[in-house]
Specification:
With about 170 residues, the chain is α/β, with parallel strands linked by helices. It folds into two domains: about 40 residues; about 100 residues, no CATH class. It is built from four helices and seven strands; from the N terminus they run βααβαβαββββ. Bound molecules: S-adenosylmethionine. S-adenosylmethionine binds next to strand 1.
Length: about 170
């Protein structure tokens, strides 16, 4: 990640062995209609976001990923119950969705992750708003980047710039 080294983080090389996602109302980003639909949500003058989205849509077309129609916590619990290869770090990632969840969904997600953590290497990464914004200079109205529940950075509503807290 740009700027990580300056903040004391050292990115390591890794290989993605599998990906899968869910949404209660998924959009197939690999189709022309899905790409146009997603592009329509970005204001026309936000050229940086358009460039990032266009790059992401290219990746989605070249490496399509299944996105199931499902609620987050039940779907994650089912996925985490599946066997996983040795030396695989499972990453549970979600962004700008928790603020729409009922409180039970957040509790069930955290419980599913904690239950699985005892059985496999696992990282829970999120880019989400928090109701309990940690103390400090960070704007509580902006999303936080969380690693295993700890807020390590803040970012803009739609991603960069990322400001690390340490
Ligand atoms: C603002 S969009 C963010 C989409 C995407 N995660 C991103 O970062 O670009 C919020 C998404 O959360 C989905 N959503 C809301 N409640 C959900 C739930 N309980 N389980 C799974 N997805 C949910 C909505 O359908 C919507 O696509």
């Amino acid at each position: 990640m740009k700027g990580c080294e300056a903040e004391g983080f050292s990115p390591e090389a890794f290989q993605v062995v599998d990906r899968r996602g869910c949404d209660v109302a998924p959009v197939d980003a690999a189709t022309e209609a899905g790409a146009a639909y997603l592009t329509s949500f970005v204001w026309p003058w936000q050229l940086d976001r358009h460039a990032r989205l266009a790059a992401a849509l290219r990746v989605a077309r070249e490496h399509p990923v299944v996105v199931d129609r499902a609620r987050a916590s039940a779907w994650v619990a089912e996925r985490l119950a599946e066997p996983v290869g040795e030396e695989v770090l499972t990453v549970v990632w979600h962004s700008v969705t928790r603020l729409y969840w009922p409180v039970e969904e957040t509790g069930a997600m955290n419980a599913a992750v904690e239950e699985a953590r005892g059985r496999m290497p696992l990282a829970h990464i999120a880019m989400e708003h928090r109701w309990d914004a940690p103390p400090g200079d960070a704007d509580p109205g902006m999303p936080f980047i969380e690693v295993d529940g700890e807020a390590i950075a803040t970012c803009d509503h739609h991603g960069p710039p990322v400001t690390f807290h340490r």
